[in-house]
Structure formats: structure tokens, C-alpha cells
Design a protein that fits this description.
heterodimer, A: mainly alpha, MetI-like fold, B: 269 residues
């Protein structure tokens, strides 16, 4: 029994070793790919979210309704289905556009496709978060900015974004955590991020439990590290904001 | 979606809702739907309909059972964190952190491939009466969805239990209620009431998580759509129909939760 245990322990050490027979470096590469996609998707989602929130609050009636349809549909349909739909439709569309313009069809980089697809999904959620945050800003501040004759861009940069930040950070922090976990879904379309790499490693070595457990620990470490950083960012964003009764 | 809210609102609000630009948008949407119906390929539909209905049924029971079991687990998890002793609160919090900190897909694969590959090594498991079930995919799918829902809901219930006003519990104690009766009559109903709007959102998220079980060979509605795509090489049609099916289920879920919320009398002191 003891011999079996030491054998198992050394086996796990070998499997997760950094050098080529072990899979440690491959797993870390997968983790980095996951983080890259998460950062890209979160950033793209934020851009869409700022535009979407502005459109929903200040846009014309048609823009508002279209944005409502966008957020409703994205939040009601499983991410997995959206990823497949957007992945096929997106690559198809780009290639048809290239064909119309007279270029050769290209194979779209998995990283870019992943960021684009998850970014569209994240955009719907951050639209709602940012809309709520802008509404939580005392509206007098925005009116004052308008009264000063600020252009919408300046107003966004100087007043709306900084003032809404403390209200938006908790929701956005949540979205970032969702983004890191949603990258795992790209394994289903075969993109080599952490979960897919883990599956490959597990399939090759038959050590399913070890590898999925190790990947779980990597994801958990990413989440816990993010939580630490995010709580610091939240404290920074809330500096100077009088703490309201009922909120901490 | 539009049709749903039409049915829900009374007449004058419907007229207020139906502005000229909305009529234009609805006409445009109808045109797109009609174009999809007539220009795309739908001849496979009758052949796959029985399989699709089976898949739909599997998706729904998976959702209902995992929500029911998950909630049953989440209540003690939340209560342990909100009011339990340290030796119960710490494991409960650790469980919620781990579940919420790792992707569901990974948890599912850990259970199905990981545990699934460990079990056959133990003869006593292979000889037990559970073995015929442990060789199928659905117990793993149901278990991992249940644990996931319990993890997220445990956190929600923690907040809900902690948010029930102290005075309510003190009043219950002043009435001489035994502790369990006070929990059953006062604490739990108010916590559930507080958690209900969040539960609605989380249940929709749970519905959106169910297609992941298709990756461990369970044939739910998503897996049926994948099979259509593989058999016939039609890409968009099954996915679009699938999106529509999920949107309809989401609409029904939201409607049910709204009915449930309306049944509970609102009286804030």
C-alpha cells in the first residue's frame, strides 16, 4: 500500500512536471491563453457596454429597442449556443466579405474568434451593469456638465465614467470572473485554452482525475488572485465616496 | 419575447407600448423570420422531431431536478455560513468558493471522466447495486449541475438569511417558539422571499448551463441540434431553432417566477 502511494505520488509529479514528458508547461500555456481571451473579451465587452449603456440611456427609440433585443437575446440563450452561432456566422461573414472584396478566404485565428465571440456575450451583461451604474450617478452632476457645454465625449471622460465607477466596479468584477470561467466553453469549439489542454493531457495519459483536479486548482488560483486585486480596485474606486447607510 | 409581453400587459399599456417605430421593427423582424422559414432548409424537422422532444424533456427534467436538489443543499449551506458555528461555516464557505471559482465544464468533466475512471478500480463499487447507474452519464450530469446550483445559491441564501431583520427573530423567541419552529415559520420563509428575485436569475443561468451535459454524451435538446448539424451539414438552422427554444423556456421561467413572487403578499413594515 505504501509502495503504491509513493508510486502514485511520483507519477503525479512526473505528469505535472514542466519538462516535455510532463504536461506542466502545456497547462500553463493553456492558462495564459485562457487569461488572454478573458482579458480581450472583457475589454471588448466593456467597449460594447459603454456604447450600449449610452445608447440605451440617451439613444433614439430605434437604437434603444435594438439594444434591448440584443441584451435580452444574449442573456436568454446559452453561451454555448451563442458561441457556436457567432463562431460559424462570424467566420462565414468575414470570408464572404473577403470574397466580395476579391481576397482569398482566410482561416480565422482562434484567439481572435474567441475574443470576438465572448466579447459580444460579455457586452450584453456589461451594458446592463453600466446602465445601472450611470443611473446611480446623481443626475445633477451630468446636468451640470451639460450646462457647462461639455461635448458628450468630454462629459463621458470627465464626469460620467469616473462618477459611475464605484457603482459599476462590483458588477464588472463579477463579469470578469464570469469571463475567466466562460473561456472554458471555447474548449467545445476546440480552442486550446486551459480546459481543452487539460482534456488532451488527460486523454493522452489516462490520468483524468489528476489533470482535471490540477486545472481546477489553476482556475481557482486565478479566481482568488482576481478577487484580491478587484477588491483593491474597488477600494480605490470608492475613495472619497461617503459610505451610504446599508452599504459597506 | 414581444408576443409574451403582449399577452401579459392589459390593453392601454399595449397601445402605449406599440409606437410607430416599434411597428416598423416588428414588421422587419417578421420579414426576417419569414425569410428564414422560406429560404433556409427545414425539411429535416419532421424526421428529428421525436428526438428533439425527447431532448427537450431531458433538458427540462435536468433543470427541474438540479434546481430542486440544489436549493435543498443551498439552504443548509447558506444557513451554516450566516448563522452556523465556525466548523460548519468554514467548510460551507470553502465549498461555495471552489464551486464559484472553477468553470462548470471542468467540474462536469472532473466528475464524469475523473470519478468515472476511478470507480471501476474498486471492486466493491462495481459489485454494488449503484453500478448500473454509475456507468451512465446522467447521474454525473445531474450531480454536477446540482452542486453548481447549490454553490451559487448557497452564497445567495447566506445573504438572504443574514438580511432577515433581527427583530423578527427576537419576536419569535419572545413568543416562546422552539428554535426549529422559528426557523421554519419566520427565518426561512423571509429569507426565501428575499432571495426569490435572485433565484429567478440564477435559474435562468442554470438553464443556460444545461447544454454542457451534451459534452458527456447526454442527449439533451442541444445534443439533438448538434446531431442534426453533423448528420446533414446544415449549420445555422438547428442552432437558430435551438436559440428560439431556449428563449421560450427562459420566457416561461421568468413568467413562473413572477407569478410566484406575486403570490407572496408584499408587506414591508
Amino acid at each position: 500500500m505504501d509502495a503504491l502511494l509513493t508510486l502514485a505520488a511520483s507519477g503525479i509529479g512526473d505528469l505535472l512536471a514542466f519538462d516535455p514528458p510532463g504536461w506542466g508547461s502545456r497547462l500553463l500555456t493553456g492558462l495564459i491563453a485562457s487569461v488572454e481571451i478573458a482579458v480581450g473579451a472583457f475589454g471588448l465587452g466593456l467597449l460594447i457596454g459603454v456604447g450600449g449603456a449610452y445608447g440605451k440611456l440617451y439613444g433614439g427609440p430605434v437604437a434603444r429597442d435594438l439594444l434591448e433585443v440584443y441584451t435580452t437575446v444574449v442573456r436568454a440563450v446559452p453561451e454555448l449556443v451563442l458561441i457556436l452561432l457567432l463562431y460559424f456566422a462570424g467566420t462565414d461573414l468575414v470570408n464572404r466579405l473577403l470574397a466580395v472584396l476579391g481576397y482569398q478566404a482566410v482561416d480565422i485565428n482562434g484567439l481572435i474568434a474567441g475574443i470576438g465571440v465572448l466579447g459580444v456575450v460579455q457586452g450584453a451583461y456589461s451594458t446592463e451593469v453600466l446602465r445601472g451604474a450611470i443611473l446611480a450617478v446623481p443626475q445633477g452632476q451630468i446636468e451640470a456638465a451639460r450646462a457647462y457645454g461639455m461635448s458628450p465625449g468630454t462629459m463621458l471622460r470627465r464626469i460620467t465614467l469616473p462618477a459611475m465607477l464605484p457603482f459599476a466596479i462590483p458588477g464588472l468584477a463579477n463579469l470578469w470572473l464570469i469571463a475567466t470561467k466562460d473561456t472554458a466553453l471555447l474548449a467545445v469549439v476546440g480552442f486550446d485554452e486551459l480546459t481543452q489542454t487539460t482534456r488532451t493531457a488527460a486523454g493522452a495519459t489516462k490520468a483524468y482525475f489528476t489533470f482535471f483536479f490540477a486545472a481546477g486548482i489553476l482556475y481557482l488560483a486565478l479566481t482568488l488572485a482576481s478577487t484580491l486585486v478587484l477588491s483593491r480596485i474597488e477600494r480605490w474606486a470608492r475613495r472619497g465616496v461617503p459610505s451610504l447607510a446599508g452599504s459597506t | 419575447m414581444a408576443v409574451m409581453s403582449d399577452a401579459a400587459v392589459p390593453r392601454p399599456r399595449l397601445q402605449a407600448w406599440l409606437k410607430p417605430h416599434r411597428i416598423g421593427l416588428i414588421v422587419l423582424a417578421l420579414a426576417i423570420v419569414l425569410a428564414a422559414v422560406f429560404l433556409m432548409r427545414w425539411d429535416w424537422l419532421p424526421k428529428y422531431l421525436p428526438l428533439a422532444l425527447q431532448g427537450l424533456w431531458r433538458t427540462i427534467w435536468l433543470l427541474v431536478l438540479s434546481v430542486a436538489f440544489g436549493l435543498a443543499l443551498a439552504i443548509p449551506l447558506g444557513f451554516a455560513q450566516a448563522a452556523g458555528p465556525v466548523w460548519l461555516a468554514v467548510p460551507a464557505r470553502a465549498f461555495c468558493t471552489v464551486i464559484r471559482g472553477t468553470p462548470l465544464l471542468l467540474q462536469l468533466w472532473l466528475l464524469y471522466y475523473g470519478l468515472g475512471s476511478l470507480f471501476p478500480q474498486f471492486p466493491w463499487i462495481r459489485e454494488s447495486f449503484l453500478w448500473p447507474y454509475l456507468r451512465q452519464a446522467w447521474p454525473y450530469g445531474l450531480l454536477s449541475l446540482t452542486l453548481s446550483y447549490a454553490g451559487y445559491e448557497g452564497e445567495v441564501m447566506r445573504g438572504a438569511f443574514a438580511g432577515v431583520a433581527r427583530g423578527q427573530l427576537e419576536a419569535a423567541r419572545a413568543y416562546g417558539m422552539p428554535r426549529f419552529t422559528a426557523f421554519r415559520r419566520i427565518w426561512l420563509p423571509q429569507a426565501l422571499h428575499r432571495a426569490l428575485p435572485t433565484l429567478a436569475g440564477e435559474t435562468v443561468l442554470q438553464l443556460k448551463a444545461t447544454p454542457l451535459v451534451a459534452t458527456i454524451t447526454m442527449v439533451d435538446i442541444y445534443a439533438v441540434a448538434s446531431r442534426v448539424r453533423q448528420d446533414l451539414f446544415v449549420t445555422y438552422e438547428p442552432l437558430l431553432l435551438l436559440a428560439l427554444v431556449y428563449m421560450i423556456i427562459t420566457g416561461i421561467l421568468i413568467y413562473l417566477f413572477r407569478m410566484l413572487e406575486a403570490r407572496i403578499p408584499q408587506r414591508l413594515g
